[in-house]
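User:
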Amino acid sequence: MPKPVPPHLNQLRLKTNLKMAISKLKFTQEKKVALTKQQRRQLAELLKTGKESSAKIRVENIIRDDIYIELLEFLELYCELLLARLNMILDRPTCDPSLLEAVSSLIYSAQSTDLKELVSIRDILIYKYGTEFGKEALENKDNHVPDKIVRRCGIEPPSEDLVNMYLVEIALAYNVPYSGLERFKGDEEEGGDDDNDDGEGGTKEEVLEKDDKEKPLAELAEKPSVAASKPQTKSTPKQQDDFDALAARFAALKNTPK
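Assistant: Predicted structure:
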């Protein structure tokens, strides 16, 4: 459990750690994004030389990094919220209902990151609201931590359909061969008649790409991607949810320089 923090230091430490965490979260995201772009180019080379088995193994690292990036995006928003409502945290003995999700999520997910600033924030929040509150948040006993955070803190391997979808997107982005493209093109042709019936002017792909530039990051993370909107092989609700959760990553992938 966290070490006791003198009350007069709570405000200074929490404010400082929140600011440092926001800065570190942004830096880590940028670093990870740059790394995954490099990894995508390497995977494209593997597909180009016909090494699909190796590509399927290595793409799991990209998927895990993308999920981790999304986790950091949400945590950044939570930190910004707590910083904006710092007085509400310091002046009230119990956690305000409007902050339960943010506070519980930061406590729950801090151990899933390698950022010491988040660990410090977790410790201060647990000291502030009590060890019992901290224990319940760590166990998500009252389900204040949303599924989008719980899933991104998980360690389950990606589904076969998700791996295939990533490789399809990489193959299309870099114009390299991939056996999964045949099934993808077949599904695309089956659903082709409906692609222009969106009532918005232009194809669904154009409308979605326009929306990607206008909507906040948190909303994009929950919106289906262009690839996910097209017919896919039959998958479980959890797998489909995974597809939706990575929408922002697919949007970035489409704009990856060759």
